[in-house]
Design brief:
23 helices, mainly alpha, 66% helix, 3-stranded mixed beta sheet, 3 strands
Length: 428
């Protein structure tokens, strides 16, 4: 018992030390009669100590181009061309450099005007009967009626309903949706389900259509086996898309459709079915978001398996998009829960230590938007009012997290420069 208490005290001491490192200035300020505010000093020291190329805050150009194409075709009402563009990208499994399927991006751009108009109206707390809330959807329903035998356009309209359902779930800046908004959310998910049911057969060989079917699970609590089987089929169709595995993991949590035993089982099954693509990484992807939001899942994860998968992911995809995602996860998203659950803190600490080799051995450019999303826990429903401000926050947080990995070098008077050739240290 005494040994366990000592181990607990040691662990809490280590947690406290690690958390203080993340908020501690990266270099010692010189003596001054009137020191500047702590935040200004921190920002100045980080900027002075780190040199790293910054990726444009606008995001992946491949993503933007695909979204713009979908938006243009929709605005021109070139529905046949839009359907063909989605179908061709879906059939070829084409993806942007960030890994997102081009079919999803084109479809997202095509419905962006409709969804954004609804979100804006909700943010302005417009009355539920306001026509701005339904005008765009009614136009989409009309196009679907004219092309009722086109599964891609049908799925597009269903996805718009799902997006708007999410918007109603937390309208405007409300922390939780009132009962009336929850009913509207459910109604949009019900309509999406009615649209997608007739094209279920078409979805068997299409990642885009299958992912639309799986998106319905967010609107209801379904049995563990149907959800696992549906996502398993989707992952088989698109094993390179890690987002499907991450979503499977969150659906396998007890708060959704699963259990901790089901989460572990599906993580191992996914690792086996995607071994040719990710090695052990399938296990890591399934647990990726689950352990960041659920302490019990974190306490139960096989840390060694997870870390083996992390290294396999980097070997399979060493792109800077991936390195930024993994580094931000280890240093920001995963560490948010430190100090709240002792059993979960042990795996959190072990996994977060992977940030050292990720940053030192693989990072050579900074992607601010990735780090900003990590601050939000990779919550897709987070409302972003200004992309530039959002990216600036990610930039500042990233510099702070990265500087923490080089605290000893910086405090010894060195600057750290990142490049494709590797790290370079030089006197300040």
């Amino acid at each position: 018992m005494l040994t366990q208490s000592r181990q607990a005290r040691d662990l809490l001491s280590r947690i406290s030390d690690l958390m203080s490192r993340s908020t501690r200035p990266a270099s010692r300020p010189g003596p001054a009669p009137a020191p500047p505010p702590a935040d200004a000093l921190l920002n100045r020291s980080l900027e002075d100590s780190l040199s790293i190329p910054i990726r444009s805050a606008e995001g992946d150009p491949d993503c933007l181009q695909a979204q713009d194409r979908g938006q243009f075709l929709a605005r021109q009402e070139r529905w046949e061309d839009l359907s063909s563009a989605i179908r061709e990208a879906d059939d070829s499994r084409a993806a942007a450099r960030c890994g997102l399927p081009l079919a999803d991006l084109i479809a997202y751009g095509a419905r962006a005007d409709v969804v954004n108009a609804t979100e804006h109206a909700l943010a302005e707390q417009k009355d539920a009967g306001n026509r701005s809330l339904i005008r765009g959807l009614m136009a989409f329903e009309a196009l679907r009626a004219e092309h009722r035998h086109d599964p891609y356009l049908t799925a597009l309209v269903a996805l718009a309903h799902i997006d708007i359902g999410w918007a109603w779930r937390s309208p405007g800046n409300a922390p939780a949706a009132p009962a009336s908004s929850q009913r509207r959310c459910a109604a949009h998910f019900d309509r999406a389900a009615a649209l997608l049911e007739p094209i279920a057969e078409d979805s068997k060989d299409s990642p885009f259509l299958k992912s639309a079917q799986c998106a319905l699970f967010a609107g209801s609590t379904s049995g563990t086996l149907p959800v696992a089987d549906a996502f398993g089929a989707l992952i088989d169709l698109a094993p390179a898309n890690h987002r499907h595995m991450r979503t499977l993991g969150t659906h396998m949590l007890p708060r959704c459709s699963g259990s901790y035993a089901a989460l572990e089982l599906e993580a191992r099954r996914t690792a086996a079915r995607t071994a040719q693509t990710w090695g052990a990484g399938g296990y890591t992807w399934v647990y990726f978001d689950a352990i960041a939001i659920d302490d019990q899942a974190c306490a139960r994860v096989d840390t060694r398996f997870f870390l083996d998968g992390l290294r396999d992911i980097v070997q399979a995809n060493p792109s800077q998009e991936m390195i930024n995602l993994l580094a931000a996860y280890c240093t920001v998203a995963l560490r948010k829960g430190l100090g709240q659950n002792l059993q979960a803190d042990v795996p959190r600490l072990k996994i977060s230590e992977a940030a050292s080799w990720l940053i030192r051995d693989h990072l050579n450019e900074l992607h601010p938007l990735v780090w900003a999303h990590a601050e939000e826990g990779f919550d897709n429903s987070a409302r972003i009012r200004s992309v530039s401000h959002f990216a600036a926050r990610g930039h500042a947080g990233a510099l702070q997290a990265i500087a923490g990995q080089f605290r000893d070098e910086i405090e010894n008077g060195q600057t750290v420069a990142f490049s494709e050739q590797g790290l370079e240290f030089s006197p300040a």
